[in-house]
Amino acid sequence: MLPPARSEWPHPFLRLNLVRAGTAALALAALGCPLAALAQDVAPAATSAPEPAPAAPTADEQIQFEADGASYDSNVDLVSVFGNVVLRRGDQSVRADRIVWDRKTGRIVAEGNIRFVDADGNQLFTDKLELDEELKAGAMENMLLALREGGRLAANSGERLADGSVLLHNAAYTACAVEDDKGCPRRPSWRITAKRVIYTPATKTVKFEGARPEIFGLRLPPLPGIKIATDGRPISGLLIPDLQFSASNGVQISDTWYQRLADNRDLTVTGYLFTGAPPMVSAQYRQLTSQGALQVTGYVTRSSRIAVGGPLAASQPDFRGYLFANGRYQFDPNWSLTFSGRVTSDRTFLRRYDISRDDRLRSTVQLERIDPDSYFSIAGWATQTLRVGDAQGLVPIALPEIDYRRRLTDPWLGGNVQLQVNSLAITRTTGQDTQRAFASAQWDMRRLTPWGQEVTVTALARGDVYHSDENALTSTVVYRGNPGWQARGVGALAVDVKWPLVGEFLGGTQVLTPRFQVVASPTLRNLEVPNEDARAIDLEDSNLFALNRFPGYDRVEDGVRFTYGFDWQFERPGLRINTTIGQSYRLSSRPTLLPDGTGLSERTSDVVGRTEVRFKDVVKVTHRFRLDKD
Fold this sequence. Notes:
The chain is mainly beta and 630 residues long.
């Protein structure tokens, strides 16, 4: 008798997965057994040992087919599958109208409505595609490559190089969406066209040869040697040159070298050439860590300084520059450090090279600790003036400023108690020096009456200690204070009543809240202590009902005053309106230390308010106003 026949697959690494019946199953079954093994029913004589069978392919090495039909041409050894063809190998797949496999050469050709997905998730759409036995794409025509990172590459033709890169001819690239929300095609806002494009999947980079950018359909000048990363990460190399013109420097040409030092650090160095000024170099270093970020930027050149307030002949070539550094670090959920520093070599450098139009450069540093019931801060700041006529020696340096606050719950009367300790040291090289320290306690209690009124009672007690010297160098007399040691006590008591009234209006809901406040404070020795932080005062809606309407601690309103006004809010779907308006009246007829023009210089203040209109999340209009009481 004959032994059972052993099926031979057409290729040791090809397994046909038959999922559709009919003629496709019969054809593929015939292909599966092209040669029947014949044997005689005889005793096994002395024969040579059989050759070992090839190792079974792994699941990722097997190629699976799905198709409506199949055929086999034994004359040329071609296997053809057609009709909704799906070919899979591991994470790769090919969908096409027809696939032809040449068993002699191992060449696979897919045709018609091809969608090829590689192991990285990139999708290739084309009319004709050549593949090898590992399903690696070869030559392709009229193709679109949709990268997993979001970019799009379209080309007339392309082929895979020996190193795995894809070479495209007459191609275009864009990272913009090419379809709208409804799936309709749309023109990208920008793209790059090139005669040759090389896409390297291993490094996820696209290199252009003969590139021309397009922005909103406008073609820009050619930019040779462009290279980008499809996943958005930066690549070391020269960036696109920049061309500018200014009246002071003439034509400016600059180019930047970008160096990626690590995944969290980079460096850029830029060179500048001018037709009307000496060349300049700048550098920027950036670093990001798990605790925070740091950035340092510097400019340097050698040129003549423009004398400010002196003869032009006094200007001489010298090194000039500008340094800017800032950062923030969060050491743990409570502790953080924030800093920013700006310094320049002279008062005209920034404007000369059109870097900044600021007339003052401020440097700050602050170490903070914040938790739900306390706040601690050590801070300092300094300012470099660039204004003509301002003396740098009169500009204050504040270091350190120490502030600590603690919030407690009142166990006897209810409400909250806030304790605060604060100190500040201000130094001037050729001006008045001031040191200040105070300790305060503020008690707030909020209650609701049976009729719906909201009543808030506030009490404040504070003790201040000042020391100052060289007070006569301050030109404004009311800011000087008395030299030497000074002390004062501050006390205030306030009652604030609100009565919200809710009702319907124009298809929505309105809330009208009349408000009345009375504040009483004893007469204070304001002019005997220096004023360093409460000089800029102006009545507005934000401080109308404040306990102290001076912006700092050095000046405190005394006497008795009444403040009255109302808040109005209207809300309906898509529309919200908020309005605040109010005025205050002071009982004392004594001359006030509040200057004219602040809205508070007389017993009856000006009328201040704010109106805010918001339409959905599209439009927001805010109008602040102050009306003269007369």
